[in-house]
Model the fold of this input.
Amino acid sequence: MKVNLLLVDDEKDFVETLSKRLRKKGIENLYAVYSGEECMDFLNQNKNIDVVILDVKMPGMDGIETLREIKIKYPLIEVIMLTGHGTVESAIEGMKLGAFDYLMKPCELEELLDKIEQAKNKKEEHEQKILEAQMKEKTSHLSWD
Amino acid sequence: MKTTQSTGYHSEHYYKKLTRQVWILIVLVSLIPLLLVNGFIALKFNTSYKEKTLENIKLIFLKHKIYIENFLNEKISNILLISDIYSFEELKSEDTLKKIFDNLKSNYGNVFVDIGVIDNEGNQISYVGPFKLKGINYKKEKWYNEAKNNIFYISDVFLGFRKLPHFIISVKKTANQKTYLIRATIDFFYFNKIVENIKIGHSGVAYIVNEDGKLQTSENPILESQSNIIKDILQKNDSRQGINYFEKKNELQELNIYLISKLENKNWYLIFQQPKKLAFGDLYFTQKIGIISLVLSTIFIVALSYLITRNLVRHIKKIDKEKEIMNEQIIEAGKLASLGELAAGIAHEINNPVAIMVEEAGWLEDILEESIQDRGKIEEFSRSLRQIKTQGKRCKEITHKLLSFARRIDSRVSKIQINEVINEVISLSARRAKFSNIKIKSILSPGLPEIYASPSELQQVFLNLINNSIDAIDEKKGGLITISTKRAKNQIICEITDTGCGIPKANLSRIFDPFFTTKPVGKGTGLGLSICYGIIKKMGGDIKVESEIGKGTTFTIYLPINKQGGENES
Done:
């Protein structure tokens, strides 16, 4: 799958194993950071990230806060929330803030891959639409000339 | 405070001491004012009543004294008048004297016994009366010698020539350088009667004594033995004061009251005597009643206050015991609550390692597929990895369930399907039920409308009820718990029926009370049903119970179908 993926979770072991498995499943452009702050720094420097997988419960800047920041600065990036346990509230909160979906930890790899693909497709669709809109604007501009 | 038992109850000794202290306090508080008021009133009443009685006696005494004095004065005046009107010559004639005597008799009755005239030699020159006393010489008589020197004179009582007790009134007159006496005898018995008329009550005696203490009125056996007392009184008597009051004991050790006053005509003393206990009889009677009623009321107060105190302390004891039990239960509830939080924390902590475990197993599986060629071994590896994964997932499920229940009760209202809540609870209780040989059967009516309620609160209600049912069923025998839902008008009715031991009738009315429990200490908090009751009532519903000993118990919950959500929803 051709997707630029960023994993954010304070559980290093979990992130590493999950990364290995995802790479094996064909996701080459996979990056991992271990806190909300690092996530924001990384996104600052690497503008090409498509999907972020974000743990809700993290020390320091937590998942919800990070999600809010991401959606303000990079509204096109799709975020999949990972929650430690199924508190409906945090899920609802995340969805309201614009998360693509949420998954409960530990999750099925297939399910996760599925969600990543959907998220990636959604992002591409968005970008496509934006492109089309820009094109339209430009062509309409031209016609006026 | 002393405690003997480790349970913290106060010892018997403590309650005995408390009873004693409260009792004494009540007795003191009620008796002291009673005694003070009674004592004060009794004292005041005594003095004033005594004064009044004495005043009364004195008044009667004085009246009689004046009467006696007047009587004597009058007699003297009579003789004086005679001496003034008639000349010595006229009086010498017995005819005239007889006329005068008859006159006196007709006017005053038998007061005068006789009348006579005595010349300065002491010879009675004329006499009218029942005795033959004419010509008798009185020169040697004591009374004559005293009378000779006084214008008028009253003698002491004496026997005289006639040998009968009597006394004489005489008036001295001088005419033509000659002195003579007109003398009259007063009827002793008549005079006696006047004096004895002073009667106050039935026990008072009045009499007259001369200055030597000799009785001047009729003999009275009571008085004879008292000559010493009378002499004593005479000595102490102060004649300047009208009436003197004494209290003296007679030889029989009886206290008598004495009133004494000097007559103004002569050195005679009018004495009134009466036993004190009779004089103040009414007062002593009242005092007796007062003392008896005081003693009775004291006994009453002591007894009643003991009863009150005993009941009070018994009550306190009971309350102490209840408090003690309640404290234990609260501590127990607190322990359970913190245990719940602890469990939630642990579950959360376990979740992450479980996630890693599952991922690792997955990773191993992934790489095994590529690197190992031996199919059989791969199969074996995969099988055990799957096993790791499966078990990890089971752990995950357990922690998730635990977490969803252990987290703080969320009272936020949302739209829920009651059957879903019940199924969730059943799945959670299933494991416990299985261990106790209990089947849980659900008869859930499909298509029930959604209601507005807090899912976690409702979960708690059903969980509590199902747990109670499981507890009620004997593990060895096993049993059945049936949960049903159905719709009735604007309500959803849920019934939870078990085949357990049932609830005794006496406890039925109390099972929803907080801290009421029949489970041994440490097993139940007594809060479960009261929490259920609170939650259901808050939702505007109702919860009822029916039970039969040995057959089982049915809890029926009525939940309102509220279109707009609960009134208390914000």
User: Anything to note?
Assistant: The CA atoms of residues 21 and 44 of chain A lie 26 Å apart.
